[in-house]
Amino acid sequence: SRTVITFGTFDVFHVGHLRVIERAAALGDRLVVGVSADELNLRKKGREPVFSQAERLAIVAALKAVDEVFVEESLELKRHYITEHGADVLVMGDDWAGRFDEMKDLCEVVYLPRTPAISTTALIEKISAS
Ligand code: C2G
Predict the structure, then answer these.
(1) Backbone angles phi, psi at 34, to 5 degrees
(2) If 92 and its partner were Cys, which of 42, 50, 96, 117 is the partner (CB 3.0–4.6 Å)?
(3) Contact (CB, 8 A) for 69 and 35
(4) What DSSP line would sit under 58-82, residue for residue?
(5) Pocket of ligand 1 contains residue 57 by CB under 6 Å
(6) Residue 11 C-alpha to ligand 1 middle, in angstroms?
């Protein structure tokens, strides 16, 4: 059986997140998702997510396409997470294109096109403007 792994913040969960998760799941038999820790987000984006790590994990874990979730503590631990979860394929949205090519000795690496015109940042702006 083929295990797929993907990573993300999945803050203010939206249909772009759902689509990438569903397309990732379709590439294998089992999907494992690393949800980035609040601490990692602060380092990565300079702000705290709207939803806490526990909330984001609960939402992602409840999805039909998702078999297992874990907390992604660091971007540098990809290799460890891939091995630990026995992943055959690493999937990321194409905003990360090329960034994880060094994992190609461990597993297949696939970048999927992002869903256009939707993002957490745009949603936050839309909500605060209304
Ligand atoms: N995504 C998408 N379409 C959108 C928005 C997001 O396909 N309109 C995808 C991204 O490409 C990513 C996933 O949804 O694959 C999660 O996106 P983010 O929550 O923004 O994740 P990010 O902060 O990029 O974290 O180790 C990698 C990081 O943890 C990725």
Answers:
(1) -90, 120
(2) 96
(3) yes
(4) HHHHTSTT-SEEEEE--GGGHHHHH
(5) no
(6) 9
